[in-house]
């Protein structure tokens, strides 16, 4: 059964179409990656799923029920981990989780039990009485998650839950996502960190200009771009590089320079490595390494959208 | 149940906001103390009367008049009038003109001739009143003695007791508040209206804090959130006012009258008005403008409402502006209630506060429903 079903979803702000006739489904037990550059439409979609925004056209179903017609049911089954911290700094960790869980109808001993369980789950079991203002960025992010899971939702939407935190907290959160999934939760996960999505997600959708332009497993997505290949060339004097000349080289689709590495995406069927190297020699660029890259999600995203995920 | 949960959480949150709480409690108390002490004289109705010196030239031959005058002189002496017999050759009128005496009186068998000082008008008027009383009573006794000597004796005896010469009447018989009494009322109504400042953050704060997303995503209605917040804000602000009233009553002996129940009812409706007004302004203006609009309105309303100094009946444009200050309505109604026992003065203000609050709350509720999220 699909935990989330989106059909012909459209959202307009005046004349601007933020989400354009989107179709999407998330199966039970999936960790679904939702990728898109800033302004692609993923936050708007998430906001419609969480009822923050009204749907202009189309339909969203949670566990087979329309979220507009059966709003309370869908809300009861969704947990939101917003991109921005959504906690009360002046209330203790326990009070924060308990308040939000209380809004989902939990009362008395069950509320207490679930609140403690959620705090324990995110590693804040010993911080019940602490105020979030005394927390590190990572601890606040974890509290942000605890507030979303105490009511045991079937679907958890995590909108960039690891932004701006230390590697230790990041690992903790990623492991928590896996654990939640093992416990039976379906997760929609958005991130600017492609490696997180590759590591966590069983299926991924790439959104651009309000539309889903690709959807599938990692392997399926990578197979989309068999017609291109990526070559990374390490250089020592990058300042001599003529990027425009490289772009004009036969078979080259795109060229970008990241620190001391030139990343070149070329047409798969053309072997243009000799010409590329000749161009570099002409520019008197000193080559330190040459690597042919296996296709990855970053390449897929770049090829499909023409943008980096962090653009 | 959700409304109650939200209200309790909001109250707890407000109690943790020590800065706002201290402001709401300490600010009015400090103002009552400072303004009430500094402006004591502005509220004092009494007039200081200086020494009353009467220069007397008594040339009366009548035994009866002499005897009556001596008794009278003793009686007014006890009332603080210093009598000085005029020495031969002294010009009484000139002595008064030179401010050596408050008044000069010549007494002979034909009556009393009085000359008062134009510099000490009040003292002089008091002495004149006493002498008039003396002359009237003596004339009455002189007339009565022919038919009823006992009655004449009684008149004379009665007029010789101290303190019976001048009876005070006032064209403004109402009781008036002292400065502490006035500022206890004025600062309490002012701080009640300050509730609009925190109320403007009730929903805005959730949006800024990003917790609005969680609230909207939860299976509760917007109106439950709205109701919970309005209830909490009204309760917490009213509790602050209650504390200020009780403190001013027992610590400063401020007069809150005999109808405390109605005083609290009126203050409660003013807090409700302020909360709904704050919410309304937050929805009427863009985020950045809300604080400025609120601050300007509160300060102007406080000033023309009499929070910093008493505002008498004003006319023209200022009068029209002053009359739209909710603080002015509240202050005037409370003054009437406390000092005139006028219960009727309170009900129109309670009604007006409640009606305006209802209008603002309805506006906010409708706008909130129409809006996506908040």
TrEMBL record, chain A:
Domain of life: Bacteria
UniProt xrefs under Pfam families: ABC_tran (PF00005)
Species lineage: Bacteria, Bacillati, Bacillota, Bacilli, Bacillales
The keyword Nucleotide-binding belongs to this UniProt entry's keyword annotation: yes
UniProt-recorded Gene Ontology molecular function terms: ATP binding; ATP hydrolysis activity
Stretches assigned to the ABC transporter domain: 4-234
Keyword check for Ligase: no
Keywords: ATP-binding, Nucleotide-binding
Official protein name in the record: ABC-2 type transport system ATP-binding protein
Coiled-coil region list: none
Automatic annotation (TrEMBL), chain B:
Chief subcellular location: membrane
A single Gene Ontology CC term: plasma membrane
Parts of the chain that traverse the membrane: 21-43, 182-204, 225-248, 260-285, 292-311, 345-366
Localization, UniProt: Cell membrane
Highest rank taxon of the organism: Bacteria
Residue ranges occupied by any ABC-2 type transporter transmembrane domain in the UniProt entry: 18-365
Disulfide bond recorded as keyword: no
Keyword Amino-acid biosynthesis assigned: no
Keyword annotations: Cell membrane, Membrane, Transmembrane, Transmembrane helix
Coiled-coil residue windows: none
Molecular function (Gene Ontology), one example: ABC-type transporter activity
InterPro entries: ABC-2_transporter_component, ABC2_TM
Membrane topology: Multi-pass membrane protein
PANTHER family for the chain: LINEARMYCIN RESISTANCE PERMEASE PROTEIN LNRM, MEMBRANE COMPONENT OF ABC TRANSPORTER YHHJ-RELATED
Protein name: ABC-2 type transport system permease protein
Provenance organism: Paenibacillus catalpae
